[in-house]
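note to self — DONT lose this again. spent like an hour looking for the file last time. sequence + predicted structure for the chain T wanted, 392 res
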Amino acid sequence: MSTSILQISPAYKPAYIYGGPTMSVAKLCEALVNSSSDIELSVLTTTANGPTELPVEIGKPIMVDDVKVTYYKRITKDHTHFSPQLFRVLKQLIVSARSPKKREKSAIVVHIHAWWNLISLFSCAIARFYRVPVILSPRGMLTDYTLGNRNSLTKSAIHLLMGKGLLKYCHIHATSEQEKEDVLKIVVPKSITVIPNLVNLPEKAPVRQKLEARPFKLIFLSRIEEKKGLELLLEALSDVGFDFSLTIAGSGEANYLASLKAKAEVFGIAEHIEWAGHVDNDRKFDLLAQHDLMVLTSYNENFANVVVESLWAGTAVLLSSHVGLSDYVNAKNLGWISDLSISSIREKLTTAFHQSAERNMIRETSPSIIAHDFSTAALTPRYLELYTKAIN
């Protein structure tokens, strides 16, 4: 009996504006379709691309890097993504898979990515109505931080009236132990399993050279938004005792970017910062390899693909303890971990600057460590086992 996996995501590539989650969902789907002939995998998504829509044919399955993807029109924008057409098709696919007229029945599972949007909530409700197993990858959306940060009253109402019951029905996939702990503070699901993200890494790591820290070359590479803690980093850098440059690579809302640039002026460090904008995948790894340290002082981060990407490029990392991979980095001695205070971030920046031997050691060893710990071949069977357990 074959297994039908319906992947439900509010956005799918090439909607790279949403950063790491979009890339992780796509990488997982590509790995699954290339892993087993017994899997029938389809992605149902929307044309979401930030404030605009992807220029794709609507309602017709197309192959995107070997994955069958169907894009549907959304009638509301970020962060709700309401798509009645997607819901109708999801219902039809479930009913078809369960039809007694079908010669060979398929085991079916619905895998939903992200939460607090109408695509995820209504898809979960449909699957529960038809008693189809649901795996939910909340992608950092089930934490006290996200519950209380944006539209907190609306989220609390949704959670009380609808979300809590749906979450209890789900088998939850967490990408780190930290995310697992965050989820269990909010709800106790049917089960919860920790499997790291699949990260799209090139076959060959970029050329790495020992870098002299004059100036100390720092890089932030992620979507630019409030939870990333850039204000903390800028203030910490305003009073360090060494010369530095900071590359800020990523896109974000214009008003927020303007506020960060104004703060850089106030802190007297504007001349040390290069605002590089969005960096595509072809340039990402070479850019990371050209820096001494990747810095991510987020208030909350369930995983952070860029940590894996940076270490693959041989660049050490400085993370806040609220980044999901901070425990991994600490255990493997691949960087420095701070708390969310200005003084702690400044102290860890200074330590990383002075410990050039440690940074060069990381530059030499981290690519092979990442290749072993985050290989697609090693992680894909764990996802397949997750689907099997949910169905059985």
